[in-house]
């Protein structure tokens, strides 16, 4: 269980997060809606450990992890601009997280290829990532996030660079894969339909606080 407890944060002297509390259980996806600039990405960065809250805590499974560095949280992030490594091929992008965790390269690559096959990406395993379509690149990014079996998956506008038809197609596919992987997931999105298609619950960040969206 991921838990945010009374998170506060200012930006440029203005209150941005004014007491945000949220719980996300394993196997559950929660959507975060809210206007541009309302602090959604900042909140995700606090969960990831990339930014520190001024007060309040981040807990995971009864442990306060507020001071734990990002690489020790076992969380995975996926942002809109893919953030794949352009100099690596598809397979090595996916294998990267495992190699970083200390797995042997050959074994990590084997696992990456096994993951890519059912995603329709086997034929692209040795291709440079920038030769793939936008939708294919997002699948690679999700595969790279899931291969390490993260405890929490954080998605920040994962489909915003894609056209409407592709968004719709990936929505169902991603929801299924995330559900099968079974971790707690937080999805930031502007798109209420996307939130309904992928999340079990949704909150709107407004005036620095979370309001139940549905
Ligand atoms: N490093 C930072 N830490 C905190 N706040 C920041 C930082 N950089 C910029 N801000 C400001 O904080 C506010 C919230 O930004 P944030 O990116 O969290 O909003 P957002 O809800 O994700 O918006 P969008 O929907 O446009 O992505 C903005 O006014 C932004 O300019
Ligand atoms: Mg944002």
From TrEMBL:
Residues 2-213 form the ABC transporter domain. It holds the Pfam family ABC_tran. The keyword DNA-binding does not apply. Coiled coil: none annotated. Keywords: ATP-binding, Cell membrane, Ion transport, Iron, Iron transport, Membrane, Nucleotide-binding, Transport. The keyword Cell membrane applies. InterPro entries: AAA+_ATPase, ABC_SmlMolc_Importer, ABC_transporter-like_ATP-bd, ABC_transporter-like_CS, ABC_transpr_FbpC, P-loop_NTPase. PANTHER family: SPERMIDINE/PUTRESCINE IMPORT ATP-BINDING PROTEIN POTA (PTHR42781), SPERMIDINE_PUTRESCINE IMPORT ATP-BINDING PROTEIN POTA (PTHR42781:SF4). This is ABC transporter domain-containing protein. It comes from Hydrogenophaga electricum.
């Amino acid at each position: 269980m991921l838990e945010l407890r009374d998170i506060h944060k200012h930006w440029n002297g203005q209150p941005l997060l004014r007491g945000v509390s949220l719980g996300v259980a394993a196997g559950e996806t929660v959507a975060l809606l809210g206007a541009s600039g309302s602090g959604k990405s900042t909140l995700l960065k606090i969960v990831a450990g990339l930014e520190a809250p001024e007060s309040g805590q981040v807990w995971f499974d009864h442990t306060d992890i507020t001071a734990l560095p990002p690489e020790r949280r076992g969380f995975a992030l996926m942002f809109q601009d893919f953030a794949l490594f352009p100099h690596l091929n598809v397979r090595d992008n996916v294998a990267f997280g495992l190699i970083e965790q200390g797995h042997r390269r050959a074994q990590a690559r084997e696992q990456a290829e096994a993951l890519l096959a059912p995603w329709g990406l086997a034929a692209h395993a040795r291709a440079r990532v920038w030769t793939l379509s936008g939708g294919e690149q997002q699948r690679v990014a999700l595969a790279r996030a899931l291969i390490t079996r993260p405890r929490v998956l954080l998605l920040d506008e994962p489909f915003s660079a894609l056209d409407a038809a592709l968004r719709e197609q990936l929505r169902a596919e991603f929801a299924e894969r995330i559900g099968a992987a079974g971790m707690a997931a937080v999805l930031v999105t502007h798109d209420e339909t996307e939130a309904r298609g992928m999340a079990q619950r949704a909150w709107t960040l407004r005036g620095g606080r979370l309001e139940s969206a549905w």
